[in-house]
């Protein structure tokens, strides 16, 4: 078995991880917006990014073929030390 990671799988992990981190950072602004409409819009964008995270990481899990779902891959990408 090859030790090389499929570049498509790695790319999907990076897309999913970026969307996850952006959604978390954007959700920190929930309740702090200057106007109610802007606050709700920011919250909706954060939720949309969480949906994108589910899509990208779910697709990466299918491509990997090891039975890991989006939640398992999110834990791996968020909790691994890359240093």
List the helices and strands and how they pair.
Blueprint: H1 7-27, H2 36-64, H3 70-79
Distance between the termini: 26 Å
Question: What is the structural class?
Answer: mainly alpha
Question: What's the alpha carbon Rg, rounded to whole Å?
Answer: 15 Å
Shape: elongated
Low-confidence stretches: none
Strand percentage lies at: under 5%
Quickly count the helices: 3
Mean pLDDT: 85
Number of strands: 0
**Structural domains: how many:** 1
Let me know the largest β-sheet: none
Order of SSEs: HHH
Estimated helix fraction: over 70%
Q: What structural keywords apply?
A:
mainly alpha; single chain; 83 residues; elongated
Q: Can you give a write-up of this model?
A:
This protein has 83 residues and is mainly α. It is built from 3 helices and no strands. It has helices spanning 7-27, 36-64, 70-79. The radius of gyration is 15 Å and the shape is elongated. The chain starts with 6 loop residues before the first helix and ends with a helix.
In brief, what are we looking at here?
With 83 residues, the protein is mainly α. It has 3 helices and no strands.
